[in-house]
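Before relying on records like the one below, remember that each one covers exactly one chain. Contacts with other chains, cofactors or solvent are not represented anywhere in the record.
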Amino acid sequence: MCDVLIVGGGAAGMMAAVAASSLGRKVTLLEKNEKLGKKIYITGKGRCNFTNASPIEEAQRAVVSNAKFLYSAFYAFSNEAVMDFFEQAGMPYQIERGNRVFPASGHASDVIRALERRMREQGVEIRLNCAVKELLLDDGIVCGVRLESGERIACANVILATGGCSYPLTGSTGDGYRLAKKAGHHVTPRRPALVPLVAEEPYITAMQGLSLKNVRLRLYRDKDRIYDGFGEMMFTHFGVTGPLVLTASSYAGRFLPGHLRASIDLKPALSEEKINERLLREFREHPKNRIKTVYRNLLPFKMTDVMIELTQTDPQKEVSGVTKAERQRMAAFLKDFPFTVTDSRGFSEAVVTQGGVDVREVDPSTMESKRVRGLYFAGELLDLDALTGGFNLQIAWSTGYLAGINIR
Protein backbone atom coordinates (compact mmCIF):
# COMPACT_ATOMS: atom_id res chain seq x y z
CA MET A 1 0.00 0.00 0.00
CA CYS A 2 1.26 3.48 -0.86
CA ASP A 3 -0.18 6.99 -0.68
CA VAL A 4 0.07 7.59 -4.42
CA LEU A 5 0.87 5.65 -7.56
CA ILE A 6 2.18 7.72 -10.44
CA VAL A 7 1.68 6.15 -13.84
CA GLY A 8 4.32 7.45 -16.26
CA GLY A 9 7.95 8.38 -15.71
CA GLY A 10 8.18 11.36 -18.03
CA ALA A 11 8.50 15.03 -17.12
CA ALA A 12 5.08 15.42 -15.47
CA GLY A 13 5.25 12.07 -13.67
CA MET A 14 8.70 12.62 -12.22
CA MET A 15 7.84 16.13 -11.04
CA ALA A 16 4.64 14.81 -9.46
CA ALA A 17 6.70 12.19 -7.63
CA VAL A 18 9.14 14.82 -6.37
CA ALA A 19 6.32 17.10 -5.21
CA ALA A 20 4.33 14.39 -3.42
CA SER A 21 7.36 12.81 -1.74
CA SER A 22 8.57 16.24 -0.54
CA LEU A 23 5.46 16.28 1.67
CA GLY A 24 6.35 12.94 3.20
CA ARG A 25 3.97 10.88 1.06
CA LYS A 26 4.81 7.28 0.23
CA VAL A 27 5.18 7.38 -3.57
CA THR A 28 5.58 4.64 -6.17
CA LEU A 29 6.38 5.61 -9.76
CA LEU A 30 5.45 3.11 -12.48
CA GLU A 31 7.16 3.38 -15.89
CA LYS A 32 6.55 0.91 -18.70
CA ASN A 33 9.91 1.63 -20.39
CA GLU A 34 13.31 0.35 -19.28
CA LYS A 35 14.33 3.86 -18.18
CA LEU A 36 12.79 7.15 -17.14
CA GLY A 37 12.33 10.24 -19.29
CA LYS A 38 12.82 8.73 -22.75
CA LYS A 39 11.10 11.65 -24.44
CA ILE A 40 13.15 14.19 -22.48
CA TYR A 41 16.31 12.69 -23.96
CA ILE A 42 15.32 13.77 -27.47
CA THR A 43 13.77 17.18 -26.76
CA GLY A 44 15.59 20.23 -28.05
CA LYS A 45 17.74 17.98 -30.28
CA GLY A 46 19.09 16.26 -27.19
CA ARG A 47 19.71 19.50 -25.27
CA CYS A 48 16.27 19.81 -23.60
CA ASN A 49 14.79 23.30 -23.63
CA PHE A 50 13.16 22.64 -20.25
CA THR A 51 11.39 25.98 -19.73
CA ASN A 52 11.28 29.60 -20.86
CA ALA A 53 12.56 32.54 -18.81
CA SER A 54 10.00 35.05 -20.12
CA PRO A 55 7.41 36.44 -17.68
CA ILE A 56 4.87 33.78 -16.75
CA GLU A 57 2.18 35.87 -18.48
CA GLU A 58 4.01 35.23 -21.75
CA ALA A 59 3.97 31.51 -21.05
CA GLN A 60 0.22 31.79 -20.60
CA ARG A 61 -0.07 33.49 -24.01
CA ALA A 62 2.03 30.74 -25.60
CA VAL A 63 -0.55 28.10 -24.66
CA VAL A 64 -2.66 27.18 -27.68
CA SER A 65 -5.32 24.99 -26.05
CA ASN A 66 -7.14 25.85 -22.78
CA ALA A 67 -4.74 28.50 -21.48
CA LYS A 68 -7.10 29.63 -18.69
CA PHE A 69 -7.07 26.15 -17.18
CA LEU A 70 -3.34 26.54 -16.44
CA TYR A 71 -3.59 29.74 -14.42
CA SER A 72 -3.36 28.01 -11.02
CA ALA A 73 -0.70 25.54 -12.14
CA PHE A 74 1.57 28.20 -13.65
CA TYR A 75 1.42 30.35 -10.55
CA ALA A 76 1.78 27.41 -8.16
CA PHE A 77 4.98 26.30 -9.89
CA SER A 78 6.21 29.01 -12.24
CA ASN A 79 9.08 29.00 -14.68
CA GLU A 80 11.23 30.75 -12.07
CA ALA A 81 10.39 27.99 -9.60
CA VAL A 82 11.36 25.39 -12.21
CA MET A 83 14.74 27.05 -12.81
CA ASP A 84 15.34 27.29 -9.04
CA PHE A 85 14.39 23.64 -8.59
CA PHE A 86 16.87 22.34 -11.13
CA GLU A 87 19.65 24.61 -9.92
CA GLN A 88 19.14 23.40 -6.35
CA ALA A 89 19.03 19.83 -7.63
CA GLY A 90 22.57 20.27 -8.94
CA MET A 91 21.85 21.23 -12.56
CA PRO A 92 23.02 24.72 -13.58
CA TYR A 93 21.25 26.21 -16.57
CA GLN A 94 21.76 28.83 -19.28
CA ILE A 95 19.30 31.15 -21.01
CA GLU A 96 19.57 31.46 -24.78
CA ARG A 97 17.84 33.25 -27.64
CA GLY A 98 14.09 33.64 -27.16
CA ASN A 99 14.54 33.15 -23.39
CA ARG A 100 14.84 29.40 -23.96
CA VAL A 101 16.39 27.69 -20.93
CA PHE A 102 18.77 24.71 -21.31
CA PRO A 103 21.03 22.71 -18.99
CA ALA A 104 24.41 24.46 -18.91
CA SER A 105 26.04 21.21 -20.02
CA GLY A 106 23.87 21.04 -23.14
CA HIS A 107 22.80 17.50 -22.22
CA ALA A 108 19.14 16.53 -21.72
CA SER A 109 20.29 13.63 -19.55
CA ASP A 110 21.18 16.14 -16.81
CA VAL A 111 17.49 17.04 -16.46
CA ILE A 112 16.58 13.39 -15.90
CA ARG A 113 19.48 12.82 -13.50
CA ALA A 114 18.45 15.82 -11.40
CA LEU A 115 14.90 14.49 -11.07
CA GLU A 116 16.05 10.92 -10.35
CA ARG A 117 18.48 12.17 -7.72
CA ARG A 118 15.75 14.14 -5.95
CA MET A 119 13.27 11.24 -6.11
CA ARG A 120 15.74 8.78 -4.62
CA GLU A 121 16.71 11.25 -1.88
CA GLN A 122 13.02 11.52 -0.96
CA GLY A 123 12.36 7.78 -0.96
CA VAL A 124 10.31 7.41 -4.15
CA GLU A 125 10.05 3.77 -5.24
CA ILE A 126 10.75 3.60 -8.98
CA ARG A 127 9.51 0.53 -10.84
CA LEU A 128 10.58 0.19 -14.48
CA ASN A 129 9.11 -2.16 -17.11
CA CYS A 130 5.73 -1.86 -15.38
CA ALA A 131 2.80 -1.25 -17.72
CA VAL A 132 -0.60 -0.49 -16.16
CA LYS A 133 -3.53 -2.39 -17.64
CA GLU A 134 -6.40 -0.83 -15.69
CA LEU A 135 -7.38 1.44 -12.86
CA LEU A 136 -9.11 -0.22 -9.91
CA LEU A 137 -12.16 1.75 -8.78
CA ASP A 138 -14.62 1.23 -5.95
CA ASP A 139 -17.85 3.22 -6.17
CA GLY A 140 -16.19 6.13 -7.99
CA ILE A 141 -13.05 6.14 -5.84
CA VAL A 142 -9.58 5.01 -6.89
CA CYS A 143 -8.24 2.07 -4.91
CA GLY A 144 -5.30 0.89 -7.02
CA VAL A 145 -4.12 -0.39 -10.38
CA ARG A 146 -3.62 -3.72 -12.10
CA LEU A 147 -0.47 -4.21 -14.12
CA GLU A 148 -0.13 -6.03 -17.42
CA SER A 149 1.59 -8.78 -15.42
CA GLY A 150 -1.60 -9.28 -13.40
CA GLU A 151 -0.15 -7.79 -10.21
CA ARG A 152 -2.49 -5.53 -8.24
CA ILE A 153 -1.16 -2.56 -6.31
CA ALA A 154 -3.38 -0.84 -3.75
CA CYS A 155 -3.21 2.92 -3.21
CA ALA A 156 -5.32 5.87 -2.14
CA ASN A 157 -4.44 8.08 -5.10
CA VAL A 158 -3.34 7.68 -8.72
CA ILE A 159 -1.73 10.36 -10.89
CA LEU A 160 -1.95 9.58 -14.60
CA ALA A 161 0.99 11.16 -16.43
CA THR A 162 1.41 8.83 -19.38
CA GLY A 163 1.97 11.47 -22.06
CA GLY A 164 0.26 11.85 -25.41
CA CYS A 165 0.72 10.24 -28.83
CA SER A 166 3.75 12.15 -30.11
CA TYR A 167 7.01 10.27 -30.67
CA PRO A 168 5.38 6.86 -30.01
CA LEU A 169 8.78 5.14 -30.05
CA THR A 170 9.45 6.75 -26.65
CA GLY A 171 6.43 4.94 -25.20
CA SER A 172 3.79 7.62 -25.79
CA THR A 173 1.23 5.26 -27.27
CA GLY A 174 -1.99 6.66 -25.79
CA ASP A 175 -2.30 4.31 -22.80
CA GLY A 176 -3.53 7.09 -20.56
CA TYR A 177 -6.44 7.94 -22.85
CA ARG A 178 -7.69 4.36 -22.60
CA LEU A 179 -7.42 4.42 -18.81
CA ALA A 180 -9.14 7.82 -18.59
CA LYS A 181 -11.99 6.75 -20.86
CA LYS A 182 -12.59 3.58 -18.85
CA ALA A 183 -12.78 5.73 -15.72
CA GLY A 184 -15.57 7.77 -17.35
CA HIS A 185 -13.62 10.71 -18.77
CA HIS A 186 -14.19 12.29 -22.16
CA VAL A 187 -11.10 12.50 -24.37
CA THR A 188 -11.11 15.18 -27.08
CA PRO A 189 -9.83 14.35 -30.60
CA ARG A 190 -6.04 14.07 -30.70
CA ARG A 191 -3.95 15.70 -33.42
CA PRO A 192 -0.20 16.06 -33.99
CA ALA A 193 1.05 19.55 -33.12
CA LEU A 194 4.39 21.31 -33.57
CA VAL A 195 4.91 19.09 -36.59
CA PRO A 196 6.29 19.58 -40.14
CA LEU A 197 3.74 20.10 -42.90
CA VAL A 198 3.27 18.32 -46.23
CA ALA A 199 3.01 20.43 -49.41
CA GLU A 200 1.27 19.52 -52.64
CA GLU A 201 3.39 21.30 -55.25
CA PRO A 202 6.52 19.63 -56.72
CA TYR A 203 8.30 23.00 -56.83
CA ILE A 204 8.30 23.08 -53.02
CA THR A 205 10.10 19.76 -52.68
CA ALA A 206 12.46 20.78 -55.51
CA MET A 207 13.86 23.41 -53.10
CA GLN A 208 14.73 20.76 -50.47
CA GLY A 209 17.34 22.01 -48.01
CA LEU A 210 16.71 25.72 -48.60
CA SER A 211 16.22 27.75 -45.40
CA LEU A 212 14.48 31.10 -45.28
CA LYS A 213 14.98 33.62 -42.49
CA ASN A 214 12.89 36.64 -41.54
CA VAL A 215 9.91 35.70 -43.69
CA ARG A 216 6.18 35.82 -42.97
CA LEU A 217 4.04 32.71 -43.35
CA ARG A 218 0.26 32.81 -43.62
CA LEU A 219 -2.20 29.92 -43.84
CA TYR A 220 -5.77 30.20 -45.10
CA ARG A 221 -8.77 27.91 -45.04
CA ASP A 222 -10.94 29.18 -47.86
CA LYS A 223 -11.02 32.94 -47.16
CA ASP A 224 -10.30 32.65 -43.42
CA ARG A 225 -6.74 33.30 -42.27
CA ILE A 226 -5.88 30.72 -39.61
CA TYR A 227 -2.24 31.64 -39.03
CA ASP A 228 0.07 34.62 -39.54
CA GLY A 229 3.62 34.47 -38.20
CA PHE A 230 7.19 35.69 -38.73
CA GLY A 231 10.43 33.71 -38.48
CA GLU A 232 12.46 30.91 -40.04
CA MET A 233 11.41 27.94 -42.16
CA MET A 234 12.91 25.32 -44.45
CA PHE A 235 11.87 23.36 -47.53
CA THR A 236 12.15 19.56 -47.37
CA HIS A 237 11.58 16.47 -49.51
CA PHE A 238 7.94 16.39 -48.33
CA GLY A 239 7.07 20.05 -47.78
CA VAL A 240 8.12 22.55 -45.12
CA THR A 241 9.49 22.57 -41.58
CA GLY A 242 11.31 24.89 -39.17
CA PRO A 243 10.19 26.97 -36.17
CA LEU A 244 7.69 29.05 -38.14
CA VAL A 245 6.06 25.97 -39.68
CA LEU A 246 5.92 24.05 -36.39
CA THR A 247 4.08 26.96 -34.79
CA ALA A 248 1.71 27.19 -37.75
CA SER A 249 0.90 23.48 -37.44
CA SER A 250 -0.63 24.01 -34.00
CA TYR A 251 -3.29 26.18 -35.62
CA ALA A 252 -3.62 24.21 -38.84
CA GLY A 253 -3.96 20.71 -37.38
CA ARG A 254 -7.72 20.78 -36.91
CA PHE A 255 -8.16 21.33 -40.67
CA LEU A 256 -5.80 18.55 -41.78
CA PRO A 257 -5.79 16.45 -43.84
CA GLY A 258 -7.31 18.91 -46.29
CA HIS A 259 -6.21 21.77 -48.51
CA LEU A 260 -4.92 24.96 -46.91
CA ARG A 261 -3.60 27.83 -48.97
CA ALA A 262 -0.16 28.92 -47.78
CA SER A 263 1.61 32.17 -48.59
CA ILE A 264 5.19 33.26 -47.87
CA ASP A 265 5.99 36.96 -47.77
CA LEU A 266 9.65 36.89 -48.83
CA LYS A 267 10.13 40.62 -48.22
CA PRO A 268 8.00 41.43 -45.15
CA ALA A 269 9.86 44.68 -44.45
CA LEU A 270 8.78 46.12 -47.82
CA SER A 271 5.34 46.84 -49.21
CA GLU A 272 4.45 45.64 -52.69
CA GLU A 273 4.60 49.26 -53.81
CA LYS A 274 8.15 49.66 -52.43
CA ILE A 275 9.26 46.44 -54.16
CA ASN A 276 7.81 47.75 -57.41
CA GLU A 277 9.77 50.98 -56.98
CA ARG A 278 12.96 49.05 -56.26
CA LEU A 279 12.52 46.88 -59.36
CA LEU A 280 11.80 49.91 -61.52
CA ARG A 281 14.92 51.67 -60.23
CA GLU A 282 17.08 48.59 -60.88
CA PHE A 283 15.65 48.20 -64.38
CA ARG A 284 16.50 51.83 -65.18
CA GLU A 285 20.03 51.59 -63.76
CA HIS A 286 20.84 48.25 -65.41
CA PRO A 287 18.66 47.98 -68.52
CA LYS A 288 20.80 45.20 -70.05
CA ASN A 289 20.40 42.86 -67.05
CA ARG A 290 18.34 39.76 -67.67
CA ILE A 291 15.36 38.67 -65.56
CA LYS A 292 17.32 35.73 -64.15
CA THR A 293 20.01 38.10 -62.83
CA VAL A 294 17.39 40.25 -61.10
CA TYR A 295 15.91 37.24 -59.34
CA ARG A 296 19.36 36.01 -58.28
CA ASN A 297 19.95 39.40 -56.64
CA LEU A 298 16.64 39.15 -54.77
CA LEU A 299 16.33 35.47 -53.87
CA PRO A 300 18.31 32.43 -52.76
CA PHE A 301 19.75 30.48 -55.71
CA LYS A 302 17.41 27.48 -55.30
CA MET A 303 14.39 29.75 -55.54
CA THR A 304 15.33 31.54 -58.74
CA ASP A 305 14.10 28.99 -61.29
CA VAL A 306 10.96 28.32 -59.24
CA MET A 307 10.03 31.99 -59.19
CA ILE A 308 10.67 32.33 -62.94
CA GLU A 309 8.34 29.38 -63.52
CA LEU A 310 5.60 30.79 -61.28
CA THR A 311 5.72 34.29 -62.72
CA GLN A 312 5.92 32.90 -66.26
CA THR A 313 8.71 35.26 -67.26
CA ASP A 314 11.44 34.67 -69.83
CA PRO A 315 14.70 34.29 -67.82
CA GLN A 316 16.78 35.64 -70.70
CA LYS A 317 14.65 38.70 -71.29
CA GLU A 318 16.42 42.03 -70.76
CA VAL A 319 14.76 44.13 -68.08
CA SER A 320 14.44 47.07 -70.48
CA GLY A 321 11.75 45.03 -72.22
CA VAL A 322 9.80 44.05 -69.09
CA THR A 323 6.22 45.36 -69.14
CA LYS A 324 4.52 47.04 -66.20
CA ALA A 325 2.25 44.00 -65.77
CA GLU A 326 5.27 41.65 -65.68
CA ARG A 327 7.03 43.84 -63.12
CA GLN A 328 3.92 43.99 -60.93
CA ARG A 329 3.57 40.21 -61.13
CA MET A 330 7.17 39.83 -59.95
CA ALA A 331 6.50 42.11 -56.98
CA ALA A 332 3.25 40.32 -56.17
CA PHE A 333 4.94 36.90 -56.00
CA LEU A 334 7.70 38.23 -53.75
CA LYS A 335 4.97 39.28 -51.31
CA ASP A 336 2.79 36.20 -51.86
CA PHE A 337 4.76 33.06 -52.73
CA PRO A 338 2.01 30.42 -52.88
CA PHE A 339 1.77 26.72 -52.11
CA THR A 340 -0.76 24.25 -50.69
CA VAL A 341 -0.57 22.41 -47.36
CA THR A 342 -2.36 19.05 -47.48
CA ASP A 343 -1.35 17.29 -44.25
CA SER A 344 1.11 17.06 -41.38
CA ARG A 345 3.83 14.46 -40.90
CA GLY A 346 1.86 12.80 -38.12
CA PHE A 347 2.56 11.79 -34.54
CA SER A 348 5.88 10.16 -35.37
CA GLU A 349 7.37 13.62 -36.02
CA ALA A 350 5.14 15.75 -33.76
CA VAL A 351 6.67 17.42 -30.72
CA VAL A 352 3.38 17.35 -28.79
CA THR A 353 -0.19 16.10 -28.92
CA GLN A 354 -3.11 18.48 -29.31
CA GLY A 355 -6.25 17.20 -27.58
CA GLY A 356 -6.59 14.78 -24.70
CA VAL A 357 -8.46 14.41 -21.42
CA ASP A 358 -11.15 17.11 -21.36
CA VAL A 359 -9.98 19.76 -18.87
CA ARG A 360 -13.59 20.63 -18.01
CA GLU A 361 -13.65 17.35 -16.08
CA VAL A 362 -10.51 18.19 -14.07
CA ASP A 363 -10.15 20.61 -11.16
CA PRO A 364 -7.61 23.24 -12.32
CA SER A 365 -6.55 24.06 -8.76
CA THR A 366 -5.62 20.45 -7.84
CA MET A 367 -5.52 18.42 -11.10
CA GLU A 368 -7.98 15.96 -9.52
CA SER A 369 -10.70 14.36 -11.59
CA LYS A 370 -14.19 15.73 -11.05
CA ARG A 371 -15.54 12.25 -11.84
CA VAL A 372 -13.32 9.90 -9.84
CA ARG A 373 -12.07 10.71 -6.36
CA GLY A 374 -8.35 10.19 -5.92
CA LEU A 375 -7.58 10.26 -9.65
CA TYR A 376 -5.32 13.06 -10.90
CA PHE A 377 -3.96 14.03 -14.31
CA ALA A 378 -0.76 15.78 -15.37
CA GLY A 379 1.13 16.72 -18.51
CA GLU A 380 0.48 16.00 -22.15
CA LEU A 381 -2.30 13.54 -21.38
CA LEU A 382 -4.52 16.58 -20.77
CA ASP A 383 -5.97 18.69 -23.58
CA LEU A 384 -3.17 21.25 -23.21
CA ASP A 385 -0.49 22.28 -25.67
CA ALA A 386 1.70 25.30 -26.33
CA LEU A 387 4.12 26.78 -28.82
CA THR A 388 7.82 25.93 -29.01
CA GLY A 389 10.29 27.52 -26.61
CA GLY A 390 10.08 25.37 -23.47
CA PHE A 391 6.40 26.08 -22.79
CA ASN A 392 5.18 22.50 -23.19
CA LEU A 393 7.64 21.21 -20.62
CA GLN A 394 6.56 24.07 -18.35
CA ILE A 395 3.02 22.68 -18.61
CA ALA A 396 4.35 19.27 -17.57
CA TRP A 397 6.30 20.61 -14.58
CA SER A 398 3.46 22.85 -13.36
CA THR A 399 0.63 20.31 -13.66
CA GLY A 400 2.79 17.51 -12.25
CA TYR A 401 3.77 19.62 -9.26
CA LEU A 402 0.19 20.73 -8.60
CA ALA A 403 -1.10 17.17 -8.73
CA GLY A 404 1.69 15.97 -6.44
CA ILE A 405 1.11 18.50 -3.68
CA ASN A 406 -2.66 18.00 -3.68
CA ILE A 407 -3.01 14.27 -3.13
CA ARG A 408 -4.91 13.40 0.00
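The chain has two domains: 2-189+354-405, 196-345.
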